Inverse folding.
């Protein structure tokens, strides 16, 4: 059985999508959030999944090294095999990357490498592209720069607003992320030492 650890900062819609269609070979070990008001914590608690807050007082876009080391220890203590970033709004740095090499994935609302960073749907509209989408990728120390695992395309329609485009991208995310998590969990279950 593969144990998942989830990090999120917001409503938790991507986590909820994975929870609705859980991988056959997996269980949810722990959900952690850097936002004590995050909806993802409520979703986890309602599902009976251990959930806790990451307290960071020094930085807004990353965790202090000691805090991230503590997060890595929490995930390891929960037996986590695969870490899923589901709307987690901080850069991951070396303490987590060392503890979970190529076992941390993220979903981003664009067809990476296009439009990394915040509000990728707004970036797509501003750039006037005809197509955008979402990407699941392995996490490295950069901002949305890790190796791409899978992508799903979404057309930018005439008259799209940032909100309407974002809503359609989220629908694609809610299909893509559970599929990728299920695939990776199946591969880990078959070979716990698999190197991705």
């Amino acid at each position: 059985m593969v144990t998942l650890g989830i990090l999120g900062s917001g409503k938790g819609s991507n986590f909820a999508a994975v929870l609705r269609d859980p991988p056959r070979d997996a269980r949810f070990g722990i959900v952690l959030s850097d936002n004590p008001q995050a909806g993802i914590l409520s979703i986890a608690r309602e599902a009976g999944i251990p959930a806790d807050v990451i307290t960071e007082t020094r930085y807004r876009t990353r965790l202090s090294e000691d805090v991230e080391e503590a997060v890595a220890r929490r995930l390891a203590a929960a037996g986590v095999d695969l870490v899923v970033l589901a709307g987690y709004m901080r850069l991951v740095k070396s303490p987590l990357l060392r503890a979970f090499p190529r076992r941390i994935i993220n979903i981003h609302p664009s067809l990476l490498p296009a439009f990394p960073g915040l509000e990728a749907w707004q970036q797509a509209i501003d750039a006037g592209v005809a197509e955008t989408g979402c990407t699941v990728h392995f996490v490295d120390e950069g901002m949305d720069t890790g190796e791409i695992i899978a992508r799903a395309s979404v057309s930018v329609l005439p008259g799209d607003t940032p909100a309407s485009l974002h809503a359609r991208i989220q629908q694609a995310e809610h299909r893509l992320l559970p599929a990728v998590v299920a695939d990776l969990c199946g591969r880990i279950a078959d070979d716990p030492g698999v190197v991705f």
